[in-house]
Design a protein that fits this description.
This protein has 19 helices and 14 strands. It is α/β, with parallel strands linked by helices.
């Protein structure tokens, strides 16, 4: 769950709400102005906002307007004085969840925040389910296998290990496994173990007691407790430090853990789903990953195919991401031309589905025309460097790319031009291979020497010599 944001220039109001939320074990983040909160909104998102109306700089209503343009499902509780009825009415018209008159009763404020959290989580689940249903759609056989596996595991509590390159949608699949499981009504908590510093990861996973270390001013529940009864998704498990691997193995073995600095065992009832882009068997051989933990995690394994192995899904996903970006930005949806979709199918997408989504978002923002042509793509997506280079298919990709560009430009005699370029390349490579010996080159190419000589003259390759 994301934190509750408190926005108020009055330090005493922030202090009261911070203490109340700490007591209720609700994560929060405080801001002294709406301007500070707007800057933070560029890289993080709250679960609920509690904001004053009148502050130096932008007002709470200004923040409400910006937030609801980008994230319409996030509830905002507006704090206002009893005498400021007009502002309260304006807040409701602007989409506020509720208003909290000052001075307020602390218990009433906490109840209001909990109601807003319940609605936010419910809305998040609904919108996330709609996104998940689209984001992991695929017609490719490899993806159909993934869908079948999710269906078979729908009533299971089994531990699952998901293998896949970065950007293939491992967390989406983990969420789908949770949503279709008996634990669907309980929390789904995700954590990227590679993104958290080693010295903080233990506390993040298991929580800590007050005074457990410098800065631990209060008790904090970790991700295991937050996920109680539900699913805990550990992404990039291959990067987990060895001492934490031991602690995780202990939880999987006996179902108990201790908070950092704690002495009382806490019973854990969570389903573990892990994911990695690494070869865990190889890391076990290298002594970087515990073999006993690997076998505990590797009960059911799912492999997510990279996008280059499911090229037939690229048009489907690309169209969806254009629609999704347009909806998020409240702009007119763009369309791909057939030539552009064909061009995208020829790309490797090393960043996989995430990279395709980012490209579609860029096109939604940057492309002036309604129909996206090849020439509208970022420059790095137009050149030969983006063509397929694997498994001996690079020349076909380059040829298709050149054809698409020529068609886009409206060139004449495209067939003659490309055939001439194709023949020139073959002949020049054959002559290079035979050190200029035409008879040997003609034999390798499967043509007579006279035919080769005539083509050399027609194509202007006379400088190759005998």
């Amino acid at each position: 769950m994301k934190p509750v944001w408190i926005i108020d220039d009055d330090r005493s109001i922030r202090w009261v709400l911070e203490k109340s939320l700490t007591r209720e074990e609700i994560d929060f983040k405080s801001f002294a102005s709406a301007d500070d909160a707007l800057r933070a909104l560029g890289h993080e998102v709250p679960q609920v906002v509690v904001s004053d109306i009148r502050m130096p700089g932008k007002s709470g209503l200004d923040f409400l307007q910006v937030l609801h343009q980008r994230f319409p499902h996030i509830p905002v509780i507006i704090m206002t004085a009893y005498s400021d009825l007009e502002s309260a009415v304006t807040a409701f018209q602007g989409g506020a969840f509720e208003y909290l008159p000052k001075p307020f009763d602390v218990n009433h404020a906490v109840d209001l925040i909990r109601r807003a959290l319940d609605q936010s989580l419910r809305k998040s689940d609904e919108s996330q389910q709609a996104e998940l249903d689209a984001d992991i759609l695929g017609q490719a056989p490899a993806m159909q296998e993934v869908f079948r596996a999710i269906g078979k595991l729908s009533q299971s509590h089994a531990t699952v290990l998901i293998n896949g390159e970065s950007g293939t949608g491992k967390e989406l699949v983990a969420h789908a496994l949770h949503r279709h499981s008996p634990r669907a009504g309980k929390p789904f908590i995700a954590i990227n173990t590679a993104a958290i510093p080693k010295d903080l990861l233990e506390s993040e996973l298991f929580g800590h007691e007050r005074g457990a270390f410098t800065g631990a001013a209060s008790m904090r529940r970790g991700r295991f407790e937050q996920a109680e009864g539900g699913t805990l998704f550990l992404d990039e498990i291959g990067d987990m430090p060895s001492d934490l691997q031991t602690r995780l193995l202990r939880v999987l073995s006996d179902g108990n853990f201790y908070r950092v600095g704690g002495h009382q065992p806490i019973k854990s009832n969570v389903r573990i789903i892990t994911a990695t882009h690494q070869n865990l068997e190889e890391r076990v051989k290298q002594g970087l990953f515990r073999e006993d933990l690997f076998h505990r995690l590797n009960v059911i394994r799912l492999r997510l195919p990279p996008l280059r192995e499911r090229r037939e899904d690229i048009p489907l996903l690309a169209k969806y991401f254009l629609q999704k970006s347009a909806s998020e930005l409240s702009v007119e949806q763009k369309q791909f031309s057939d030539a552009t979709l064909q061009h995208l199918k020829l790309q490797n997408f090393p960043g996989n589905v995430r990279q395709l989504e980012n490209l579609c978002h860029w096109l939604t923002v940057m492309t002036p025309s309604k129909v996206v042509e090849v020439i509208d793509l970022p420059v790095e997506w137009r050149g030969e460097s983006a063509a397929i280079t694997a498994e001996g298919r690079d020349w076909k990709a380059a040829l298709a790319q050149q054809a698409a560009l020529a068609l886009q430009r409206g060139d004449d005699r495209i067939m003659d031009t490309l055939v001439a370029q194709f023949e020139s390349t073959l002949i020049m490579q054959a002559l290079k291979h035979t050190n200029g010996r035409r008879i040997e080159a003609a034999t390798l190419l499967g043509m007579g020497r006279n035919t080769l000589t005539r083509k050399i003259q027609e194509l202007g390759l006379d400088n190759q010599g005998e």
